[in-house]
Amino acid sequence: MARRVPRQPLIAALLAAAIALASAALTPEQQGVVSHISADSLRGHLSFIASDLLEGRNTPSRGLDIAAEYIAAQFRRAGLEPVGDHDYFQTAKLPNGEARNVAGLLRGSDPALSQTYVILSAHYDHIGMRSSGEDRIYNGANDDGSGTVSVVEIASALAAAPERSKRSILFLTFYGEEPGLWGSSYYVDHPLEPLSKTIAEINLEQIGRTDATDGRHVNVAFVTGYDYSNVGSILDQAAQPAGVEMKPIKGDYFSRSDNFAFARAGIPAHTLAVAADYSDYHKVSDEWQKIDYANMANVDRGIALGLLQLASDAPPPAWNEHSAAARRYADAAKKQRQ
Fold first, then answer.
1. Residue 93 and residue 99: Cα distance in Å, rounded?
2. Fewer CB atoms inside 10 A, N or C side of the chain?
3. pLDDT, tens digit, 9 for 90 and up, residues 290-307
4. Domains in the chain, start-ordered, CATH in brackets?
């Protein structure tokens, strides 16, 4: 009788072999970037960002301030350039307190193209604490601690590469997405780099869970408004060596995350998610221990390769003017260029 091979290790082995085969097509620069992204590193970051100490990262709150300091420390560690009004912070006044976007810049290598920008973002806030119950803290590990630590990890990987991309890459984490896209809207109204020179904005939401309500999602990221521009197809092609697909999302999520503020300003901007809907969404049970870190690391590798492509000397992405749904954003882009 033939020896039975356990199903899960076999799948993992086949996946590793496929990734290794695809990675053979990477340039040395790309290989260095994808090798830098680590599941263990992501786990370490997220176990802090989504810890009880931060009390659900409400906007504003002490926990949110601690998270901002942690993100800034990681940007500082990576050697990103501070571009805020105070070090890595862009400060906004709220009626009820100090909220801050956190921003770090990886300056491009080309004298002319370095004056153009690609943004990678996520929101680092969540919904705080409930008034009663044995577990009162909405830790927000997947929403959107996973996006936040992915921004940190990808920033570190790209900053460590021996060669810089030709365009500059701005890494942003936003406050106040949950109550109404506050941080991203504030940035668009008070940009740290010119919006007219910003060619694309990629926002990360819920990158860590694979157990979506409609099935398991592995080595795939779903793009909101996929057909609104050619950003999704650019990312999909670039991510293939990492074994990651970029697909259209099911459902109308385009206006529900921080990409929307940028899209309204005419910038091709989309959100990427692995599990847009999952059982612990906005529940206290959204804990860091439930994240699929191996998958998140590989999706982040695909995203990093997509960023490198967007930040190269290739033509900038553009809105699909044949899409009725995208026409308002295409019109805004024309006004932005005037």
1. 7
2. N
3. 999 999 999 999 999 999
4. 27-337 (3.40.630.10)
